[in-house]
Amino acid sequence: MTNQEFLGEFLALPTEAQTEVLRLIAFLKQKYQQEGSASPSPNIDLENEPFLGIWRDREDLENSSNWVRNLRENEWSKAHD
């Protein structure tokens, strides 16, 4: 649909319907302006953040996949008992 066709369709609508279209356009503009204006994430050097090493000394977490697998097996087997 061209802009001219769209305008023709819009003008063919009753005044009340035109008002609804204009309100919808205003709503969508506001919605997408807010989404686009979200502040970008600050540039943080995560490798040097202290919280990343808090489990460094946990031997049971050396292999996180095994740890999660064991945790799931234990918890899920309890649900069936």
Commentary on this structure:
- By secondary structure, the protein is mainly alpha-helical.
- It has helices at 3-12, 15-36, 64-80.
- It is elongated and about 70 Å long.
- It starts with a helix and ends with a helix.
- This is DUF2281 domain-containing protein.
- It comes from Euhalothece natronophila Z-M001.
For the structure shown, list the relevant keywords.
single chain; 81 residues; mainly alpha
* Number of domain modules: 2
Give the count of helical stretches: 3
Helix content: 55-70%
**How large a portion of the residues is in β-strands, by DSSP E?**
under 5%
Structural classification: mainly alpha
Which descriptor suits the 3D outline? elongated
Organism: Euhalothece natronophila Z-M001
Protein name: DUF2281 domain-containing protein
Secondary-structure blueprint of this entry?
Blueprint: H1 3-12, H2 15-36, H3 64-80
Protein name: DUF2281 domain-containing protein
Organism: Euhalothece natronophila Z-M001
Entry summary:
This protein is mainly α and 81 residues long. It contains three helices and no strands.
